[in-house]
Amino acid sequence: MSAFPPTRHSAVVAIRSQDPEERSRGYDAIVAAYWRPAYIHLRHRWAAAPEDARDLVQGFFADAFEKGTLERFEPGRARFRTWLRVCLDGYAGHAREAATALKRGGGWTRLALDFDGAERIAGELQAPGGDPDEAFRREWARSVLEGALADLSSWAAERGHDTAFRMFLTVDVESDGGARPTYEELAQAHGLPVTTVTNHLHRMRREFRRAALERIRALTLDEQEFRDEARALLGEDPA
Amino acid sequence: MKTPDDATVARLQRILDTPELGDGRYELGERIGAGGMGVVHVGLDRRLGREVAIKFVRPGALAASDVARLRREALLLARLEHPGIVPVHDLGELPEGGVFLVMKRVRGRGLDEVVQGGVPLGERLRLFLQLADTIAFAHAAGVLHRDLKPANVMVGTFGEVLAMDWGVARVVAGSDATTEAQPATPGGGPPGTSAGTVIGTPGWMAPEQARGDAISSGVRMDVFGLGRVLGMLLDAPGPAGAAARTPPAPLRSIARRATAEAPGERYPGVPEMAAEVRRFLDGERVLAHHETPAERIRRVLAPHTIAIVLIGAYVLVRALLFAINRR
Fold first, then answer.
1. Interior CA angle at B16 toward B10 and B21, to 5°?
2. Nearest by Cα to B164 from B237, B212, B105, B122
3. What pLDDT digit, counting tens, does each position of B129-160 carry?
4. Are B73 and B145 in contact, with CB atoms under 8 Å apart?
5. pLDDT band at residue B213 under the 50/70/90 scheme
6. Which candidate in B2, B8, B15 is best for mutational testing of the A interface (most A CBs within 10 A)?
7. Which of A120, A146, A231 sits opposite B61 (nearest CB)?
C-alpha cells in the first residue's frame, strides 16, 4: 500500500525554527490553511468590509511573521487554531483602534490569495450573529479538506490513477443521493469490471483519509492536539 | 478545483468517518451512534443476510490505544453471555489498521428517554432490577463496567434492559463481588487506564474514579453508578395525568447509601443493593432506611389496604344500623 511520501512535518514546529527558510515554509503552510477562515472570521465576527478584511488578513500574517506572534503558542493552554484566532482578534482590534489596516513587509511578501472565492463563501454563510468559533472551525475544516483533495489529485496524477480519481470525484464529491451513479453504471461507462471500480474507490477514499490526516498533522504540535483536531475536522469540537 | 461547498464538505467528512471494511462481507449503513472513541453504524451481514451493528474506532482519530481498547471490549463481551449484554458476532480487521466489532443490532431507546415519557414507579424499579442483575452477573464473571449511566443503558423493543458500551470495563481478579479488586493481569484494563487516569463520565462516576483511582474500590464503583441511575429513575416523571409524587423515602435511602462518598459505606455488592429494592417492592423494611413509627405502620398496613377499607366500611355500616335501631 503506497502512502503520501513524505510525511508532513508540523508547520507549527517549523515556524519556531532558527533556519529562516524552514520558518518561512512553516508560515506558508499555516497561511495556506488559515487565510480563508481568517478572512471569513473578519467578515462575520468583525463585520469588516471585503477590502478591509483583505488588508487585515494580509497585515495579520505579515505582522505575525515579523513579530513571531504565532510562535508563542503554548500547546497546554489551547489548540493552535484557537491561538491563531485569538491573535487575529487582537490584531483586528488594534487595527480598528488605529482605524487603519496595517500593511507591513519585514521579509514577507504580499500574498496572492483567492479573496474573491472566499468572498463567495462569506456571502453564502449565514448573516453575522452565529457562533464565531464554530464558523472559524467550519472554514478551517473546509480549507483542510480542500487541501487534502488537492493532495489526492496530485498523488493520483503522479501514479497514473486519473481514472480512479475521476470516479472518486463523481461518486463521492460531486454527486449526492439519487444523482450518484451506481458502481455498475461506472463500470459500464469506463469499460471496467465492477470489482475494479470498487477497488479504485476504496483506494481513493483510503488515500483521501490519509491526505486529510497528514494535513492535520502538519497543523498541530502533539498527538493530543492532532486527535482533537481530527475530531474537529469531522464536525465535533470537544474543546 | 473549486472550493468545496457545505454539501461537499459534509460528503468529504462522511468519507473521513467511514472506513472500508475489507472483504465485503459487511456493508456499512447509516451511523446510529458515536462516542469519544468509537462510532456505531447499522450494517448488513451479506453472508447471513441479517442486520447488525458495526462499531469501530473513527478513522480520523485512529490511535493504537483506541484500537487495543476496542479489541479488548470484543474479547470481554465474548465472555459475558447474558440477556442483558449485547452479544458480539465477529471481530474484524480494518485494511487501514484497527478493528471493527460486529454486534447484534438492538432496536430500542435509551433508558433516560424511556423514563422521561412517564413510567410508573414500579415499572421503573423493574427496569432498574434488570440492569442490576446484569451488572451483578458481570461482577460474578470478574468484570467491572466502570461507566454506568443512563446513556449506556438501552431498553429494547420487548422491554429488555441492556447494559451497553463496555469500552472502559476492566477484568479483575477473583469473582463474586470482589470488594477490593486487583487487576487479573497486566492487560486487565484497557490501554490508558493505569492509576491516575480518569475513567468514567463526569456527573456519573464515583468520587474515587474522578480522582484517577478506577480500580481499588472494585464493585463498589459500579454500585455508585447504579445508585446514580436509581436516583435518576426516582426523579423521572410518573405517567401523564397521575399526580406528581415524591419518591418514597426508603428508595431515596437506597440511592443515598449506594452513592456514599466513601466506598466502604456503600453496599458491598450489587446483589445486596438489588435485594434492598426488592424488599421495598415486597413491602419489607429497607435496611438502609431508618423508619419512623408512622412509616412502619404505613408499610405494614399497605398490603392490607383493601381488607382495611372493607372492614372499616363494615364497621361503619354496622354502627349506622345500630344508631338507627336505637332511635
1. 125
2. B105
3. 999 999 999 999 999 999 999 999 999 988 89
4. no
5. confident
6. B15
7. A231
If you classify domain B12-104 with CATH, what class do you get?
alpha beta
Question: Would the pTM of this model clear 0.90, i.e. be above it?
Answer: no
ipTM of model: 0.79
Q: Which residues of A touch B4 (CB under 8 A)?
A: 142, 145-146, 149, 173
pLDDT along chain A (239 residues), means of 10: 50 88 90 90 86 90 90 84 92 77 49 70 61 82 92 94 93 77 88 90 90 90 83 67
Active-site option among B45, B66, B147, B282: B147
Mutant choice from B2, B6, B8, B28 vs A, greatest count of A C-beta within 10 A: B8
Active-site residue B90, yes or no? no
3-state DSSP call for residue A136?
Answer: helix
| B83 vs B163: CA distance, rounded Å | 10
> Which residues in chain B are contacts of A121 at CB distance < 8 A?
3
Joined grid coordinates for residue B91: 471481530
Output the CA torsion B12→B16→B22→B28 (10° steps).
-70
Q: Which residue of A has its CA nearest to B20?
A: A202
* Beta-carbon count within 10 A of A29 CB: 20
Residues 6+ apart with CB under 8 A from A113: A35, A36, A39, A54, A57, A58
Write the CA distances from B321 to B81, B316, B317, integer angstroms: 66, 9, 6
Those residues with Cβ within 8 angstroms of residue A91's Cβ, 6 or more apart along the chain or in another chain: A56, A59, A60, A63, A64, A69
Task: Indicate the domain borders of chain B.
Answer: 12-104, 109-290, 293-327
3-state secondary structure of B1: coil
Q: Which residues of B touch A153 (CB under 8 A)?
A: 1
Q: In CATH, what is the architecture of B109-290?
A: Orthogonal Bundle (1.10)
Q: What is the DSSP letter of A199?
A: H
Helical residues (DSSP H) of B60-106, grouped into ranges: 64-78
Interatomic CA distance for residues A239 and A83, integer angstroms? 13
Is the Cβ pair B4, A145 closer than 8 Å? yes
